[in-house]
Amino acid sequence: MSQHSFVHIAMSPFRLMCLGISSSLCQSYNEHGMPHYVASGIAFKEWAESQNVVAQWFLLALSFFVLGLSMTLENTFGASLAPAAVVALGAVYAFFKATGLSVRANKTKTA
Fold first, then answer.
1. 62, β-bridge pairs
2. CA pair distance 69, 46, nearest whole angstrom
3. How far is residue 13 CA from its own chain's centroid?
4. Rounded to an integer, what distance in angstroms lies between the CA atom of residue 48 and that of residue 14?
5. Which residue in 2, 49, 84, 102 has the most C-beta neighbors within 10 A?
6. Per-residue pLDDT averaged across 77-101, rounded?
7. Rounded CA gap, 23 and 89, in Å?
8. Which of 21, 1, 5 is nearest to 13 (CA)?
9. Which of 42, 27, 63 is CA-nearest to residue 71?
10. What is the residue extent of each domain of the chain?
């Protein structure tokens, strides 16, 4: 994987947040002029490097899952619509859970 591809994937949650939720969330910078998302990523990386190997593997797997999920959402719905799609899917799930409805086919037993 190229460095460009990795950075593109790592910035996917940032794009979802900036384009899909609010651009004002992404216009805040730390005292060094670095966006908070980037500074948080660097701090997380440095903290993860200080953990033991098992914790590092767990954090790596968790990071790949979260980044992969956000990249999949971005590629499927677009960065501006992905957060709305997540909310809509969550609302549909909550509706089905609250009403007890099911999308599964009814299986009937035959004698």
1. none
2. 23
3. 5
4. 20
5. 84
6. 89
7. 23
8. 21
9. 63
10. 3-99
pLDDT digits (tens, 9 = 90+) for 56-82: 999 989 988 999 999 999 999 998 898
Side chain identity, residue 35: P
Residue 11, amino acid: M
Asked if 41 and 10 touch (Cβ cutoff 8 Å), the reply is yes
DSSP letter assigned to residue 2: -
Phi-psi region of 100 (alpha: psi -120 to 50; beta: other; left: phi over 0): left
- Joined together, the tokens standing for residue 38 give 């980037």
Start-end of H helices in the chain: 3-10, 12-15, 36-49, 53-77, 82-99
Compute the distance between CA of residue 28 and CA of residue 38 in angstroms, rounded to an integer: 11
Orientation angle between helical segments 53-77 and 36-49, nearest 10 degrees: 150
Q: What is the pTM of this model?
A: 0.69
d(CA 78, CA 70): 10
In Å, what is the CA distance from 93 to each residue of 28, 60, 68, 104? 34, 29, 22, 13
* Rounded Cα distance, 81 and 29, in Å: 25
pLDDT reported for residue 51: 95
